[in-house]
Design a protein that fits this description.
463 residues, mainly alpha, single chain
């Protein structure tokens, strides 16, 4: 237990921006990459993730200001507080389940790789918190630590399934050879998005609408179709919604806030893709080494490197759709019957939630917004349902509750159906519930293996 406590403390101290490059370096050297090249690639990846986090921080700050202004203007109150995904991660890693999740998830990954059940080697250790979150809810519901750890193990396996399924589409759409995404927030709604996209294919007018970033740029021209200008326009519109009431008392400050928000979102549209391109500079040598390694030792075998979905969110379609979803989500929090949750801290996480709808819709922003809206509607009710147990898990993990917060939740992973299903089945049926979930997952995995090309094309692959 002391070893696990020390390992958890080390990971908490290093954080993802240091931990990931360290694992990438070790992985690259193990694949036969020259030490100097592996070191440089690892440092570039660390630098890129710091840059991505800085831009996300800019986005978070901008959208938090929008949310605060709208809440102030409307006087909306809700008793479930959105504490944001960092708080959910802290709760997950702070629980007793969080102590075990890293060795358990790594063991599950190695076993599934050895028996050829998965192609993904998940090196995104920091994001194992998604698995721990599901397990910590089960533990909070049942008091059974072994059941919580087992639930985390099954969740880790499920993410490998989604990563394999979506990898060809991710590699093709985002130009990321050899990469897959075993990220709990991003992969969960793939199975939800596919049938909705197929339904949209049947709607006249909508089915033929060319609304990806390139189509919009062509339709609006090189100036107004430019992603940077789109970010500016979206920011100004959001600013008008948020700060319109301020004009009556301080028109100058209101104008400054609106224009600042526009420039900030324009900067996000420019800087995120640049950071992702830096990340790719570091990933390409590792990907090449992985392919050479497998060709020499197992010519019939393909292995994907599992990474954080942060590498996807720089795509213009993803950012644009996410920003459009912000006012929609705030409106939904007001009008949805029975909703007790107001979004606040996690508005900036929408790019992660909808990133894998990009390949499915071929980057069609209109479709991504429609699918994203439906995801948010479902997410609100899941967030409401999970709030009591998430609050209990937070108390058990020693999480400091916000002042005057009766209940807490978040978009990541409080809006996600996977931990909710674990909570419901594990809480009600305990080990029988986990067994049912595992069997259902195994059945889906079997059918995917039997006809993987069709499944992968449904997720957005064209080859």
């Amino acid at each position: 237990m002391d070893f696990l406590t020390g390992l958890k403390a080390l990971i908490d101290t290093l954080g993802s921006t240091v931990l990931l490059p360290v694992f990438i370096f070790i992985f690259a050297v193990a694949l036969g990459t020259k030490v100097g090249r592996a070191f440089r690639s690892a440092v570039i990846i660390g630098v890129a993730f710091i840059g991505i986090n800085l831009v996300i921080g800019l986005l978070w700050g901008a959208l938090t200001g929008v949310s605060q202004a709208i809440v102030t203007n409307t006087g909306i109150t809700r008793d479930i507080v959105d504490v944001g995904w960092p708080s959910a991660a802290a709760i997950a890693f702070g629980s007793d389940v969080g102590l075990w999740v890293i060795p358990v998830a790594l063991l599950v990954n190695v076993i599934l790789l050895v028996v050829r059940a998965t192609k993904t080697l998940n090196v995104d250790i920091w994001n194992f918190w998604h698995f721990a979150f599901a397990g910590s809810l089960v533990y909070a519901a049942t008091g059974d630590l072994a059941l919580g750890i087992a639930s985390s193990a099954v969740a880790a396996a499920l993410m490998l399934f989604f990563a394999d399924w979506t990898a060809p589409a991710v590699q093709e759409f985002y130009n990321l050879p050899g990469i897959s995404i075993p990220h709990g927030t991003s992969t969960a709604y793939v199975a939800f998005a596919i049938p909705i996209n197929l339904l949209l294919d049947k709607i006249p007018g909508l089915k033929d609408l060319d609304a990806d970033s390139e189509g919009i740029e062509k339709a609006l021209g090189p100036t107004f179709g430019d992603p940077m200008v789109m970010g500016l326009v979206i920011g100004v519109v959001l600013g008008l919604i948020a700060y319109f009431g301020q004009f009556a008392t301080d028109a100058l400050t209101a104008t400054a806030n609106i224009l600042l928000l526009g420039v900030q979102l324009a900067a996000v549209m420019v800087l995120l893709p640049r950071m992702v391109s830096i990340l790719m500079e570091g990933l390409i040598p590792i990907s090449e080494s992985a392919r050479e390694f497998m060709q020499k030792r197992a010519s019939d075998r393909e292995v994907y490197i599992g990474l954080d979905s942060a590498i996807l969110i720089g795509h213009p379609s993803v950012i644009s759709a996410s920003l459009i979803l912000v006012p929609i989500a705030i409106l939904l929090s007001v009008i949805l019957p029975g909703n007790r949750m107001l979004l606040f801290a996690d508005l900036a996480i929408f790019p992660f939630v909808i990133a894998l709808t990009g390949p499915i819709t071929k980057g069609n922003i209109v479709r991504m917004v429609i699918i994203g809206t439906l995801i948010i509607i479902v997410g609100f009710y899941i967030g409401n349902a999970m709030a009591p147990l998430m609050t209990e898990a937070a108390a058990a993990a020693g999480f400091e509750m916000p002042a005057d917060a009766a209940l807490i939740s978040s978009v990541g992973d409080g809006f996600i159906w996977i931990p909710w299903v674990f909570m419901v089945l594990g809480g009600a049926l305990k080990w029988i519930g986990l067994a049912i979930f595992t069997v259902v997952m195994a059945v889906f995995w079997y059918f995917y293996k039997k006809n993987s090309k069709a499944w992968e094309m449904a997720a957005g692959a064209t080859k």
